[in-house]
Write a structure and sequence with these properties.
Elements lengths: L8 H8 L5 H6 L10 E6 L27 H8 L4 E7 L2 H4 L4 H9 L4 E5 L8 H9 L3 E6 L16 H13 L2 E4 L6 H10 L5 E3 L13 H9 L6 E5 L16 H11 L4 E3 L13 H11 L5 H16 L3
Parallel strand pairs: 1-2, 2-3, 3-4, 4-5, 5-6, 6-7, 7-8
Helix pairs in contact: 6-7, 9-10
């Protein structure tokens, strides 16, 4: 199934975002992707010092765990496994809505990174802010009820600003990337019904398996989103799911159900570093589950899971 979109206003806006800069691209020609075909669709980074990139209110450098995880530290783990590009995810706990550190990484390495940022949908004109950020490499937005007070979480998708974000995403191709639990899937499904042209990404299998169980009803609810042609799922955060330790083979039955529902063109592997490289977990065991251990799929299917889906969803501009 192709995810190519017809040339329309969305594509014109996206084309304008190539003002990421040809001159800048030439300046970073040293960021070679030769021999590094894979894309990690989900990793956090942060600097060890908060002088240039201040932390969220109430946070200090002592709260950072690990104390440092820069783009250089990330790529030192990724490159030996064949990963040349990464989608950087805004860390709401440390930087909330300040995307500047991730945008700076794109500015320095525009071939290597794209950003899944965050904006405050309760502030005026979130759609205009989305379009501004597109020109800086922000091709998706993390949306989640988890940053709200528990009393406000039930209506997290109902706010006018959130509705504007979904409408804008249909124009710009910027994905609504949902950090949710399986219980939130019906609300996302309703938004997909209302906004069928908006790209939607479900992070971390909708956290199915975080309690060690892969409930059939939860997996079925996630598979229901496959009827929306712009819905995709990240195969990620293995450290937090199932047995929470390598080799993560207990995730394969769920992955195969998702393959049957979505097809490989709408699934993408991701690590969720640095959390995937703490304790007994590591980067190799994450990518190895898809690259080396997932049987019964073609080389073409594996290329979609490890690169082409993420490229289509996030590296279009």
């Amino acid at each position: 199934m192709s995810l190519e979109l017809p040339i329309n206003r969305r594509d014109m806006l996206a084309a304008g975002a190539v003002a990421l800069g040809a001159g800048t691209m030439l300046a970073h020609a040293a960021d070679s992707l030769d021999g590094l075909p894979w894309i990690d669709a989900h990793s956090h980074i942060w600097p060890p010092k908060a002088d240039k990139f201040p932390l969220a209110p109430g946070k200090t450098e002592k709260d950072l765990s690990p104390p440092s995880f820069t783009d250089d530290e990330l790529m030192a783990l990724a490159r030996p496994e064949g990963v040349g590009r990464v989608v950087l995810i805004q860390h709401s706990v440390y930087h909330l809505f300040d995307n500047s550190y991730l945008i700076d990484a794109v500015r320095r390495h525009p071939k290597l990174f794209r950003v899944q940022g965050m904006i405050d949908d309760r502030q005026p004109n979130p759609g205009a802010r989305m379009k501004e950020l597109l020109t800086q490499g922000v091709t998706g937005f993390r949306i989640t009820p988890f940053i709200l007070k528990e009393s406000d979480q039930a209506g997290w998708l109902d706010a006018a600003g959130m509705q504007e974000m979904w409408r804008t995403g249909a124009e710009t191709r910027q994905a609504m990337c949902c950090l949710i639990n399986a219980s939130n899937l019906p609300g996302v499904e309703a938004m997909c019904e209302k906004n069928p042209d908006t790209p939607v990404v479900i992070d971390h299998f909708a956290r199915i398996g975080v309690d060690g169980q892969f409930k059939d009803s939860d997996v079925s609810a996630l598979c229901k989103l496959a009827r929306f042609k712009h819905a995709t799922v990240k195969l990620s955060a293995y450290y937090a799911l199932g047995r929470k330790t390598p080799p993560h083979l207990e995730l394969i039955p769920m992955i195969k159900r998702l393959l049957d529902a979505f097809g490989p063109q709408r699934l993408m592997w991701a690590s969720d570093c640095p959390y995937q490289v703490q304790g007994g977990n590591n980067y190799r065991s994450s990518i190895s589950l898809i690259r080396d251990r997932l049987d019964g799929i073609s080389e073409s299917d594996r290329n979609w899971l490890l690169a082409k889906t993420a490229e289509k969803v996030f590296f279009y501009a």
